[in-house]
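In response to the reviewer comment on reproducibility (Comment 2.3), we provide here a single inverse folding case reported in full, input and output, so that an independent group could reproduce the run without further information from us. The structure tokens appear first.
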């Protein structure tokens, strides 16, 4: 399970028998811990969430928690690599790659995210943004893991823009710079939307990105 585009929390509500079954399934235990941790970090932040809270919410013992993630840092890195990266893949990369053009894919992503926020009436922000703000200056391993996700995201958009150029449907002279701009514009707009608790910054950003991609400059 990965957070949806609007960051809505989906805390597990497993019944006790399910928890007992899960405790005998190491892979399921690990998944549950990652799911709970990803949601807790999104809602409360990494530093404000204890491993005890995560283990209790996941329905596992402290020993099981330590077996899979000996330190909180190891859990945080796993959340970035296994959950945050998967969210960016699902929400951004796959839709852009599958779209007829980069412009159409990017526009569709913005529209879906805005619609999710409007339906939820709450903005919790982008999981990658949230952890980047909180952890990028804390530890170089966190910074490298976060940078890797950003790099894959940007590269996917750049590759799509280059593909558009090759097929004659794109006129963009610098796909690398434009892909970087799209990621940065979205990330900044999402942060502003979180502060304002309104999708308005995202809507405005989407309009400007749409116009930029249409001009092909």
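Designed residues, in position order:
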């Amino acid at each position: 399970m990965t957070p949806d585009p609007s960051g809505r929390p989906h805390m597990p509500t497993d019944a006790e028998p399910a928890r007992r079954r899960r405790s005998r399934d190491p892979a399921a235990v690990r998944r549950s811990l990652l799911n709970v941790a990803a949601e807790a970090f999104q809602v409360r932040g990494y530093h404000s969430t204890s491993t005890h809270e995560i283990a209790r919410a996941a329905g596992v013992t402290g020993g099981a928690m330590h077996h899979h993630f000996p330190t909180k840092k190891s859990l945080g890195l796993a959340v970035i690599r296994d959950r945050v990266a998967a969210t960016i893949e699902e929400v951004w990369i796959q839709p852009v790659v599958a779209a007829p053009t980069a412009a159409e894919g990017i526009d569709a992503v913005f529209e879906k995210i805005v619609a999710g926020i409007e339906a939820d009436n709450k903005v919790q922000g982008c999981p990658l943004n949230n952890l980047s703000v909180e952890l990028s200056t804390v530890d170089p391993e966190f910074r490298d893991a976060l940078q890797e996700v950003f790099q894959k995201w940007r590269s996917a958009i750049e590759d799509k823009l280059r593909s558009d150029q090759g097929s004659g449907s794109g006129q963009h002279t610098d796909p690398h710079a434009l892909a970087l701009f799209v990621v940065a514009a979205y990330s900044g707009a999402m942060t502003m939307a979180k502060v304002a608790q309104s999708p308005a910054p995202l809507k405005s950003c989407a309009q400007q990105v749409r116009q930029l991609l249409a001009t092909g400059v």
